[in-house]
Amino acid sequence: MTSQIEVSQCKNDCLSVERKDRKEYSRPLHGHCMEKSSVMRIWITNKNNREITPEMSESMVAFLSIAMEHGCIGSTFAEDDERIIAYTRWSDEMTLEQFRSSEEYKIQEGKIIQSFAAAGFEIADDILFNSTATILFSN
Predict the structure, then answer these.
(1) Region 26-55: what's the mean pLDDT?
(2) What pLDDT does residue 101 have?
(3) Do 26 and 44 fall within a single domain?
(4) Do 2 and 65 fall into the same domain?
(5) Residue 104 domain-assigned (yes or no)
(6) pLDDT reported for residue 139
(7) Which of 20, 86, 104, 132 is the most exposed place for a label (fewest CB within 10 A)?
(8) How many CA atoms lie within 13 A of 20 on its CB side?
(9) 3-class SS at 15?
């Protein structure tokens, strides 16, 4: 028996496959269809043998929580042996930039800088990477 397969394209130009000989649908080819304009903001800092303090953690969690109130659709605060990583995901760059230009952003950013400086971090020297990137694929 030959399978009948239909390939379709969603509004975001992602492809999905449906097998007509089955009642269920197969997974889309794109994994998870994101809006074309979705962006992520990434911040990676060297630890240089320093530990994350409770104050650093509190300031970062407060910042990410407030970001969620301003349209952030996901965030992560993580570390490995050498780096501290913060990641946020936004439905579009305009929403991110509105948050970045808000007074709440400036206040929370100041608290993060203050907590990192109190722990001995040199923000200008320790930041490895800080960028906004368009999401091309996510699942």
Answers:
(1) 76
(2) 97
(3) no
(4) no
(5) yes
(6) 83
(7) 20
(8) 8
(9) strand
Domain boundaries, position 14: 1-33
Asked whether residue 28 falls in the same domain as residue 44, the answer is no
CB neighbours (10 Å) of residue 74? Answer: 13
Largest CA distance in the chain: 70
Domain for residue 81, yes or no?
yes
Between vectors from CA 27 to CA 21 and to CA 30, what angle results, nearest 5°?
130
Q: Are 96 and 41 in contact (CB under 8 A)?
A: yes
Say how far apart CA 90 and CA 92 lie, in whole Å.
5
The region, left, alpha or beta by phi > 0 then psi within -120 to 50, assigned to residue 66 is: alpha
Tell whether 82 and 125 lie within a shared domain.
Answer: yes
Contact in structure between 21 and 1 (CB atoms under 8 Å): yes
83 located within any domain: yes
Distance, first Cα to last Cα, the chain = 32
Residue 64 lies in a domain: yes
